[in-house]
Amino acid sequence: MGKEYSASPKLHQLESKRKRLTWILAVSGLCILSYLLGAWNAKTPTPSTQSEVYTRVGCKDEGSPSATSGGRGGDGSSVELPSSALDFESHHQLVVNSSEETQQFPPCDFAYSEYTPCQDPNRGRKFDRNMLKYRERHCPSKEELLRCLIPAPPNYKSPFKWPQSRDYAWYGNIPHKELSIEKAVQNWIQVEGDRFRFPGGGTMFPRGADAYINDIADLIPLTSGNIRTAIDTGCGVASWGAYLLKRDIIAMSFAPRDTHEAQVWFALERGVPAMIGIMASKRLPYPSRAFDMAHCSRCLIPWHQYGGMYLAEVDRVLRPGGYWILSGPPIRWKKYWRGWERTEEDLKQEQDAIEDVARRLCWKKLIEKGDLAIWQKPINHIECVQSQKTPNICKSDNADAAWYTNMENCITPLPEVGSSDEVAGGALEKWPDRAFAIPPRIKSGLMPGITVEKFREDNEMWKDRVTHYKRIISTLQQGRYRNVMDMNAYLGGFAAALLKYPVWVMNVVPASSDRNTLGIIYERGFIGTYQDWCEAFSTYPRTYDLIHAGGVFSLYQDRCDITYILLEMDRILRPEGTVIFRDVVEVLVKIKSITDGMKWKSQIMDHESGPFNPEKILLAVKSYWTGEAKQEQN
């Protein structure tokens, strides 16, 4: 039917669309109209809410939490889908760029249980080892894409709830003991029976991350609200980021997929923000002026090499007035040089080279005390330009471009200022006021079409949406979710509306989007990344509890096969995880026809404003199932 419709003349298409719209309005409105007429005749009061309308006339409110279970419920808190759904399938058939109409997707071979498509070690070995380019994103070709479901390990359990997950994870979920052996002295991770324990140790903080962060707080103001966003380069299991959270600082932690097996995976299993990533030849996938603080604790990044290009990249993503913290080689080399198995001369030269790069970036060294050294980026470039005869300012005019964009060995220009004490790009409010204050990028008019009024309207809209989500997802308020992703984040309104819940949100701005709004999201005190959803995300399997996909498939339906986007969502979603799709009915019907073959349970519901809104909601839950490891033959 869909193929016949797509091949019909344009006039027939318009007529079909008109009939479908008439059908939606008619079916959706009949229940309400029949009640109102009955209420008038019976002289009963008009209901005060849409829910009351549905309940009285027997038209089930799709927001009602009473329902059948949507999954096995590994922790006893599985998502429940409402018992009745809107049935649009027989009335809406539209050809969307996807594969076969109905296909049952088989499990992949268990060897793919830990598959990371764009950071596959086997594929990476084919690429240039210079500057570690082979560890960057190298995604599979169209012919290499998998049409199967990535299996969970046989003993997979729902992760511990936050905040317990900061300190514990199930061994069966990530069956890797390498770090507990390799980093045993450094206290990264310990195996205790059927679980891992994270003592909070690190290479440069043997007393634990908490004590280490307290040492930093003695040197810069960590608790004043001025520092909200941070980036941890070469993060290990992200204990630094984990212990910053109780100080209302959220860190984007990243590390490559390398010999330290699954370090980023452990971070995400703990409920701590993290991505697979590396300092190599491409810019980090974040906008300019994003982070209040950057950190490297023995991260092994050669800051002094390639003319200081990696420090120049830190400068690009660091906010004016932001801090760079370095511990480990070469800092305090006079004490540690023997243990580091390097010569004094070599370490001194490295530190001298780093100091020189920092001076060329116009950074000010604030302090070097104990194992820590801290620099600060200037709030503008007035003094920098005056003090250097020919400062190496980048010529490119798009500092926010960061999707497969080459790094540059130059100073990213800051917005113009009127005086030496003015913060380039605009000063930010302290946290938590920052979350709802007007972001400087909007206030200054740098984002065409996004006004202060639209920003406020967006916040109100998301407040209504999350209120509605609480009705249709009863577990939202129960700590069932921790790692949340917004696949099309726009202004970060979803993350802002979830602030009171024990979650963090990975705000994704599609790289193909007409408006690059990721800088606004960071100015609000949230974190996120760029991503092309025609490719896989830089994460391990089973790392997100809740995914929000608003308008994603309308955006991508003409760019790539949406089947593969859905298979990627299945890869990164945990068993019994939830997805909220928002789109027009035709697209949602197509999505549902695909996810029905992916062991998902789903149903289409009305928009929170009522049945007359053409946008609908598809609520989906991934079923619990596991793979079977192959038995070793004797």
From TrEMBL:
EC number(s) given by UniProt: 2.1.1.-
GO biological process: one example: methylation
Protein family membership: Belongs to the methyltransferase superfamily.
GO molecular function, one term: methyltransferase activity
Name under which the protein is recorded: Methyltransferase
The organism's place on the tree of life at top rank: Eukaryota
Keywords: Glycoprotein, Membrane, Methyltransferase, Signal-anchor, Transferase, Transmembrane, Transmembrane helix
InterPro entries hit by this protein: Put_SAM_MeTrfase (IPR004159), SAM-dependent_MTases_sf (IPR029063)
Cellular component GO terms, alphabetical: endoplasmic reticulum membrane; endosome; trans-Golgi network
Subcellular location(s) per record: Endoplasmic reticulum membrane; Membrane
Keyword Transmembrane listed: yes
UniProt-annotated stretches for the region Disordered: 45-82
Bilayer-crossing regions: 21-40
